[in-house]
Every structure is written in C-alpha cells, then in structure tokens.
Amino acid sequence: MNVKALLLTIASSIVTLIALEGLLRISLDHEQLFSASRTQHEQKSWQNAVQFWQKHQEEPPNETNFDPVLGWDIERHGNRIRGSATIQISAPANVRRVVSVGDSFTFGLDVEEPENFTSILNECDAIQALNMGVPGYGIDQSFLKYREHGAKYQPDAVLFGIYVGDYERTRLSFNFGPKPVFQTFDGQLRLANSPVPRPSEEVARISQALNGRSFLKEIVVSSVNRIAQSDSDRLDYFNQTDDIIRALLERLQSDLSPNQQLVIIHIPHADAFSERNEFRDEASQRLRKIYEQLEINVIDLATEFRDPKSSKTAAQAYYHDRGNGSFGHLNPTGHERVAHLVLEALNAECHKTEGRNKVTDVTIAIKHSWRPT
Questions:
Q1: CATH number at residue 249
Q2: Any domain includes 219
Q3: Rounded to an integer, what distance in angstroms lies between the CA atom of residue 320 and that of residue 313?
Q4: Helix orientation angle between 3-27 and 215-228, rounded to the nearest 10 degrees
Q5: pLDDT, tens digit, for every residue of 83-96?
Q6: Fewer CB near the last or first residue (10 Å), C or N of the chain?
C-alpha cells in the first residue's frame, strides 16, 4: 500500500469515528453511559451522579438539607426528628423511649405524618417514639444517623427499618445526592467520601468529568467490562456488601447497652409478593442470614404480611396503590400492622389517654382508633 492510500485510509477511519461519536451523542443520553469501572456499585453511583447533574444544570441544587456527615437529613437545624417538637434528652418518667431509623418507609412517605408506625406507637401512654427515618437512606446512613444524632436520646429500643433496596444503596457513593460510603480495606471498615462534598461542588465535578468523556470509548470499555464480568465478580459484590452490613450492625449492637433492644423491621418491595427479582431475592436472603448470625430480633414483613385467608394480595392490603398498576410505600393499614408487630416484639402494651402526645406534650386530636390485640 502506498503512502497516499495509507493516509486516505487513516483519514477515512478518523472521519468515521468522529461521525460515530457524533451519532452516539445525538442518540444517547449521558446517563446511558457507565463509567469505565467494572464494579456494579461504582457504575450505579456514576449513573445516579449523571442524572443528578442533568437535573441541576440550569437550576442549582437546594442545599438546605445537605449534611457533610450523612449526605442529607431532615430537620437539619432542629433535632433531626420528623416533626416540629422540641425533644428533651431525658425521656419522661415512666415512659419507654423508642427511636426509629431507616429510609422513606420508616419516615412514612405516602401517608400523613400521624399515620406512620412511629406516630402510632407514640399514641401509647407508656411509649415515646421518635421518627429519625430519612428518605433515600442506605443502611450505612441510618447507622450513622443513629450514632450521630439518635444515641444521645438513650432509647430503650432502636427500631431499624431496612428496606431490601437499602442493601444496594449501602455500597453507593451517590444516590439521590452525594453520600458517605463504607469500604473494607484489609478486613477493616473505613468511611470514604467523608466529609461528603456539597451537591453544588458535585455538579461542577460531574460536568468537568463529562466534558472529557468520549461516548464511543465509554461504550467500548463498558461492553468489554460486561463481557469480562463473571459469576465470581457477582459473588464478590454480594460478599463484600454482606461484610460491610454485618460490621455496621455489629457496631450498633456494641454501642447499645444490655438494657437497650435492637429490632430490625425487614421491609420487602411490594412486588416481592407477586413476582421474582433475582437481585432483590438474593439481597433479602443475605440480609436475613446476617440478622440470624448476629441474633438480632427481626420483624420480617415478607412473612407477616402474607395472609392466605385474605382475598387481597399483600401489596393491595399493606402498600400504597399509585393507581397506575404499581405500589409505593406502606399505606396506613401497613403502618398500623407494623406498629402492632413492634409492640409484640417489645413485649409492650398500648394504653391511651385520649388527646395526649408525649412528643409534643400538648393536647391533639387522635386520628386512630387502633389498639393492639
């Protein structure tokens, strides 16, 4: 091949690659590209980051709830508890104090504040229940939330709501926004991405990273990585995640005194009652194994919500119907059922004085007539 033909071939190849890059940029969105990393959690974190960047290119993110330790939090300038009441560090006399941590299921999305299970428990005269759940949290953030802000209330019991999706969130450095993430190094647990960068800083970082990325290169690298992935990679991901979650729950157990109870509320996805999902099913089984290994008291809603005598499915009975064929968080009946199960787990009774609430210590209108049997 002469020099002229070689140069023509090279020029033609360059033009073809440029045209292909341009076509990919027109036809694909940024979030459809993964980072060059092979690890599942890093790919998911990058995808979440790009979606966050797309949302906030024109309008800067609201940093009102930003927290450098947790990523984000509710009532950040207050007591970190859902609601507006001022809580004393010491519990009222003759009252059993309960602190709930977890994600949006614990927080009570899709129901009014008085309808979530923590509020229902708080109607009982001898129980003061504090809701410290935060939407979007992983197990790692819930652990940190209790350590940083819940432990000072010296609860008699800690209710740790774990939705099966929290298993995956625990490995992410970016979910709804940047967040802390625990990693293992030489068998030791280490907190990374801490302090958590501000969301506005992340928008700038992601933008800069995207400016230097080639769509064509990303697709080629990602395709090669998918081909190279093996069953051992998948097993490594699950085993490493198990190790992190087990270590976090062990630390929580060691933080609690012998007089403090830890109860996990294991919350399945609504679809788990009607269809199989390989990842969620595997995560659920692994979480249950960790609870068993650590001998933690568990309320497993996958079991408790099944009722062969009912004409309704568990999703219809206990989850919020979005009206489009899908289900969201727990509905009021689901929260009432959870409150009932918690009282059983704590071996507690619920007696009510009409109109009394120990969180606000004011007279309120009681909405529920529910009582445990």
A1: 3.40.50.1110
A2: no
A3: 12
A4: 80
A5: 867 789 999 999 99
A6: C
- Order of all β-strands in the sheet with 96-101: 127-131, 96-101, 157-163, 261-267, 297-300
Q: What one-character-per-residue DSSP string does 260-323 give?
A: SEEEEEEE--GGGGTS--HHHHHHHHHHHHHHHHHT-EEEEHHHHT--TT-SS-HHHHHEEE-S
> Is the CB of residue 184 less than 8 Å from the CB of residue 299?
no
Hey, what are 363's tokens? 């007279």
Q: Is residue 214 part of a domain?
A: no
Could you report the per-residue pLDDT of 269-303, keeping only the tens digit for each? 999 998 899 999 999 999 999 999 999 999 999 99
Radius of gyration of the chain (CA): 24
CA nearest neighbour of 82 among 90, 73, 91, 93: 73
Quote the pLDDT of residue 369: 30
- In sequence order, the 6+-apart residues with CB closer than 8 A to the CB of 118 are 82, 98, 100, 106, 108, 129, 130, 131, 133, 159
- The stretch 183-204 carries a mean pLDDT of 93
**What DSSP character marks residue 224?**
H
Residue 58 lies in a domain: no
- Is the pLDDT higher at 373 or at 112? 112
* Residue position matching structure tokens 């979606």: 51
Strands (E), 201-281: 261-267
The residue segments making up the domain with residue 312 are 66-196+232-363
Q: Does residue 38 belong to any structural domain of this protein?
A: no
Q: What is the pLDDT of residue 216?
A: 64
- Count how many domains the chain has: 1
The whole-number pLDDT of residue 188 equals 87
Lowest-pLDDT range, 150-154, 156-160, 182-186, 291-295?
Answer: 182-186
